[in-house]
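Example 358.
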Amino acid sequence: MKFNIRLNKTENSKLSEVDFDNIPFGKVFSDHMFVAEYKDGEWKDMRIEPFGYFEVHPACLALHYGQAIFEGMKASADAEGNAYFLRPEKHIERLNNSARRLCMPEFPEEAFLQAVHGLVDLDKEWIPKAKGSALYIRPYMFADGEFLGVRPSDSYKFIIFTGPVGPYYPKPVSLFAETKYIRAAEGGIGEAKASGNYSASLLPAREAIEKGYDQILWLDAKEFRYIQEVGTMNIFFVIDGKVITPVAGGTILKGITRDTVIKLLRSKGYEVEERPVTIDEVAEAHKNGTLQECFGTGTAAVVAHVHLIAYNGEDMTLPAMETRKIGKFVKDTIDGLRDGTVEDTEGWIVPVKALETA
Ligand SMILES: *Cc1c(COP(=O)(O)O)cnc(C)c1O
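Predicted structure in complex with pyridoxal-5'-phosphate:
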């Protein structure tokens, strides 16, 4: 099925104002955005229009009660300038899972794919060419009903906008294993990419930074023993040659990069265990010298190596970066898939197509 997406192109492109050698993260936005409105039980008025402000009512439900969800994905270009997505259908699948948890309407997968292809194709000149850089894509949905009461809205906006991001060479990070605050409890919304999860993490993150650490390593809400994830990344450990990552059992975000990493490593013959991992197991492995690697995975950074984990007043320093074989393999492979230098044997890479309208 083809959806009717109207196209209203901008007359004053801002492309020439961008310094592609020096792109500040998250502050540069491409020329166009996709917008759809949910009213009277259906998605309508789908259009691609110039990027810009829109009005919201002061009683907008999302602003009061947090009925809002988002996604984060990337498009990249190969040496010839052809644009690609990596597993784009996984993002609409997850957005719709988040939507169901927050009593929001699902967005049709085909409409999403048509919209994101059309939008990125239209602004493909905005995809930065430098190695490791990409066009970041932010789909999101929020309740724009005008009503002062806690109930699901009956109207919503779904928007996709994009912006170039420079090469992301994440420095190795230090993690503070948090034993006071929690990110998500069983039965909560930890598995949804819901805005409220991130507002709840701001104060704990600030306190961790004040203590001298980069990010929080979240533990489970009941016992503060089981490792969950990091900020906007899932976490992997390499212990005695085995790759271990916490099982995605409802309290962690099911990262698409996490899934890609697990599949990539298994296809190369590595043993990968998805299971409960305690902080004590990691501390023990550190003590007996079998903790070889630790890295976070997510769309933005791809892989961020961890050089230190603080737990119970002790700083555990991890092995030197030159020894990080598995984390480096994963990062190089995903970067290579994205820029066309590693062959895609899984059908993950999807070429960007021009907008098709009904
Ligand atoms: C988005 C996100 C991730 C990473 O997911 P990807 O699909 O790999 O980008 C991990 N944890 C949290 C809390 C997130 O919001």
